[in-house]
């Protein structure tokens, strides 16, 4: 097999999330051709293709999917071990690993800055979490805490500060009849095929991101299932369905996409983000970050201590943080 190259594995992991060589290169700070070169080298070591690429799309082969499911946790464990050992060698205050879905907005960035000010000896790492696996990285201890889309109703997790309430937007193909509308009613979702989320997320969470019925009971046709937001937007652009997302994600991911239109949906509950931690073994760093996040929020107080109705999280108690 030859010497295993970590850079090849990193390129594969990022490409598996982006399904686009250009965007993968941007995240890795290398050229698109370099990503292709790294992938070809990895495939040569393995002896079979991991990715199918045409002029129109990029997707994992069945072998690539299997490889990804085994590689991701192993890679995260290796990286965590290296970082923890580096921190111990420096004599620092450890590492705080924060997972997130969507984008890092001003509130989250402000909380990170406040945490770093209070704990300058603690290194902070942020890692994007797949849309299809909102709670897995916390459970597997790949991250210490995670900012995820609500609702959260997991007995082994604690829900901390809730924030970033936003209007939900429908991503549509630019040629769709609704693409030129200023807004849509929630009942008009029954006229589109709604792209959903596959993976390990529980049903209540997946149905919140892609409802199956309108408030009046009209069935919403189910579209294809995806693992990542980028995959969903690519399918929407190709006319395979429409996808719900929050306004900030639409603004961030929709920039430069002439093949998509983003139309606000009226009458649909807004999206909310919440910080989740392990109930039994949350780290002191994670609890300190939850405190910093609560202090930086600009929403009304009920956003800091969500009721079960606000958070959509029966069975999950809010986090009580002590300084």
Automatic annotation (TrEMBL):
This is LysR family transcriptional regulator. Gene3D superfamilies: Periplasmic binding protein-like II, Winged helix-like DNA-binding domain superfamily/Winged helix DNA-binding domain. One of its GO terms (cellular component) is protein-DNA complex. The keyword Transcription applies. Transmembrane segments: none annotated. It holds the Pfam family LysR_substrate. Residues 4-61 form the HTH lysR-type domain. It comes from Streptomyces fumanus. Residues 295-323 are annotated as: Disordered. The lineage of its organism: Bacteria, Bacillati, Actinomycetota, Actinomycetes, Kitasatosporales. Residues 314-323 have a biased composition (Polar residues). Belongs to the LysR transcriptional regulatory family.
